[in-house]
What does this fold into?
Amino acid sequence: MTQNTPPVCDYTNSDYQTSFWEHADRAYEDGAEVVALRRLLPASGSLLLELGAGAGRNTPRYTGYERIVLVDYSHTQLEQARARLGDNPRYTYVAADVYKLPFVDGFFDGATMIRTLHHMADAPLALAQTRRVLAPAGVFILEYASKLNLKAIGRYLLGRQKWNPFTREPVEFVELNFDFHPAAIRAWLRELGFKVERQLTVSHLRFPLFKRLLPLKLLVALDALFSLTGDLWQLTPSVFVRSHVPANTGETTPVTGFFRCPACGSTDLQEKKNGVECRGCRKHYPLENGIYDFRV
It folds into this structure.
């Protein structure tokens, strides 16, 4: 039986890649994320799940993995990713709801969720789905928007902001846009069985004045230096966390199978020329323009 899930932030027909990244003076933020990923990504891996892949901005940076599965709710965002990356067999494109990931348990040895959790009305559920599909010893790199940043703290203390950055509950500052407390994120990860390894703070210098006065390379270099304090405090608007599933969980990776029906949970799916069919509930998931569509 299909269960209701939280609302999804849908980027269908959005020009997010061009309007937010390419035409909005965010080269510094992008460069800071490159450094964070370089520090946190494993040197090598077999199968990476990229959650919230969008138009594939970060995908080329996952050079150590043999295969990458790009997941996004928006079919049009994945079309942009496919146009950018091509039909290389290294990439698999899947339109899906993160709350109902269409993959068998314990299959991926790596996962990333960058600039995605902040759209999750039920962040623990999204993290639980990620945990479900990760194999023992699998690495998870998460980026989240922190409510405990210096700007928010200053505004709250000056009475210019009503919500409290020190409390652990998420704050929805715009519809389906959430900031999270670092301690809450760590607690959720631990409750799900993840072991937190390292934290990096990112975008320390996200102010127009700094961008005007300092060269891009210097901004990124300073941010890379400041980010090393991430395990001590998390006072920036963006935080990266590397965690992993312990290797001694007793779980085993399925020998066969890849997709799992998001409607009924069956792993008995049959690949066909025009998509995938669930033998459990007979639901058909189409394959259109090289993209599997598992949205229900």
User: Anything to note?
Assistant: The chain has a mean pLDDT of 94.
